[in-house]
Each structure stands twice: as C-alpha cells, then as structure tokens.
Amino acid sequence: MKRPSGSISHITTPLRAWAHRFAFLLLIASAFGLMLLGKMDTLLVERARSTVTDAVAPLLDAASRPADAINDMIDSLGEMADLRGENALLRRENDRLRSWQALARELEAENAALRELTHAVPDSSLRFVSARVIGDPGGAFARSVLVNAGAREGVVKGQAAITSNGLAGRVAEVGMQSARVLLVTDINSRIPVAVGSGRDRAILAGDNSVRPKLLYLAPGVDVAPGDRVVTSGHGGAFPPGLPVGIVSQVGEGALRIQPFVDWAHLEYLRLADYELSGVLMAPGAMNGTISADANQVREHKGAKGKPQRAER
Asked: What CA–CA distance (Å, rounded) separates 110 from 113?
C-alpha cells in the first residue's frame, strides 16, 4: 500500500523549518568545533586544508583564466590607444624637427656666405677640460665650487667654466689636482655683458644671490624681462656670445638676471681655454710683461739720446 505524498512533506517540512531556524547556531558550533579540532590535532587540520586546497585549485585556475584573458585584452586595447597617441605626437615632433633642420641649414649657409663676404677671421681651436664638481669649500669666495681638475690637466687661472646651458663662472684658483671656480653669482664676480638684441653693454655683478644684477647700463636703454644676456667680449676675459641668462626683473631698485645654469644640479663643468688673458693674467706674468715693456721703452729712449757708433 502506497503512502500518500502528503505524509512525506508533513515530515520534511518541520525538519526544514528547524534547520533554517538553527542554521546560524549550527555554523557557529561547527566553527568552534573546527577551532578545537585544530588545537587538538594540528597535523590533521593542515592535511585537510591541503586536500581541500588541492581539490579547489584546478577549479579556481579554470575560473580565473577567462578573467585573465579579458584583463589582458583590456590592457592591450589601452596600450594600442596610448601607442596611437604617442605615434601622433611623434609625427608632430618630427615635422617640427624637420622644419628646424631646414631653418638651421639655411642659417648655416647664410652664415658661411656672410663670413666669406666679410672675410671674418675664424675662431681659434677651443681646448677644454671636463671636470666634476666635488665640493663647495667656501672661504673668501661665498659662491664657488671645487672641481677635480688642475694644472696637471692643463687648467689655467681665468679659463671660462661653462655648462651645456651657459656660462657658470671662471677659474679663480688652480692647484695641481683641483681648481676653484668662481661662480657668476659671487659678490666678487664682474663680467662684461651685452643685453638684448641691441647688445647694450653692461656689467653683470654677483651679490651672493641666485640672480645677479646688471650695473652701469647706459641711461635710456630699454630693457624688458626676457631679454637675452650674453658675454660682450670686452676686457679680454671671455669671448663674445657666451650665453649667461635672461632678464628676470626690471625695477627701480636693480635689474636682475636669471642665469641659464641650474645651480641645484651643477655636477660637471667644462673649463674652456679661449686663449684670452685680458684682465685675468697672472700677477707674475703681468709684472714680467710690464717690466719688459718698461725696459723696451728705456732702451728706445736711450737709443734716441745717444749717437750711434759706427760699426768697425
């Protein structure tokens, strides 16, 4: 005789209700039981955990592969978009470089033609020594640096110290293995310069600040911020045309210059020999030259005052 299906549901319904009602308590009891079991038998729990992990790992690996493939596809699409933008940027830069190259070639040809037309004397071969800045010794010069090249490498007092951006200073003291470079910002630095397109003469004077001043500018000269400042070549200290900086401040107090050199990242200097002595001639050599000139003057006067003897 078959039992009616209603009798089975009549039995399972209270069981399901009881399970739903006490499921949370059963989970808590199971968690405590697992904790106690882990304290009692650690090896057993580790083996069970390893077994479960080994069983679930292939499933996780299989489930993660589509997600990884989708992530790789998204990254590839993003990289393709970035590459397209970079390619467009590089094309524009190449176009600008081509225009600059054409202009540079045109200016080079024009410069060569003007030199040939004016019979300009070519510049002498430049000799230089690259030296690394090894310290800021201070002393009498507040704004100076020490480099690891000296007389042994051919460094001479008065040589220009330049960087890839512009003039940094001049060699003030020379040792056998080191030299001290007086920066253009030092209070003892005075450099003849030319300002702006009109090449108005002035003196660049340091005052121990990062922006030196312009002095002795002719009255009525119109100077504006952004005007380029280069060496004028007067005084025989530096050749003309070395870049120094730009006018950064124009006021009644003073004209300030922002040098091209980055003082915070001054690591290497090129000590250039332009074969100019000028005002930077060594005292001994200067005294010897003055004495020699004086002797020549005295001999010339003596030759005029005394009658010449006839040769036998």
From this structure: 5
Token look-up 């300009």 returns: 120
Q: List pLDDT tens digits, range 158-193.
A: 999 999 889 999 999 999 999 999 999 999 999 999
* CA gap 256, 259 in Å, rounded: 10
Main-chain phi, psi angles of 282, to 5 degrees: -60, 145
- The conformation of residue 126, written as its DSSP 8-state character, comes to P
Q: Which of 253, 158, 172 is nearest to 211 (CA)?
A: 253
Q: Name the average pLDDT for the chain.
A: 78
Tell me the HSE value of 214 on the side-chain side, using a 13 A CA sphere: 33
**Beta-carbon-side half-sphere exposure of residue 280 (alpha carbons within 13 Å):** 26
pTM of the full predicted structure? 0.53
Instruction: Quote the longest CA-to-CA distance of the chain.
Output: 171
**Helix axes 42-118 and 5-40, enclosed angle (nearest 10):** 70
186 CB burial (10 A radius; 0-12, 13-18, 19+): buried
Asked whether 194 and 240 are in contact (CB, 8 A), the reply is: yes
Residue-wise pLDDT for 194-253, tens only, equals 998 888 999 999 999 999 999 998 888 888 999 999 999 888 888 888 999 999 988 776
Instruction: Return d(Cα 227, Cα 258) in angstroms, integer.
Output: 10
> Do residues 271 and 155 make contact, with C-beta atoms less than 8 angstroms apart?
yes
- Measured CA to CA, the distance from residue 183 to residue 56 in angstroms comes to 71
Rounded to whole angstroms, the Cα distance separating 158 from 235 reads 12
pLDDT at res. 270? 92
- Asked if 134 and 175 touch (Cβ cutoff 8 Å), the reply is no
Neighbours of 211 (CB within 10 A): 16
CB 187 within 8 Å of CB 218:
no
Calculate Rg over the CA atoms of the chain: 42
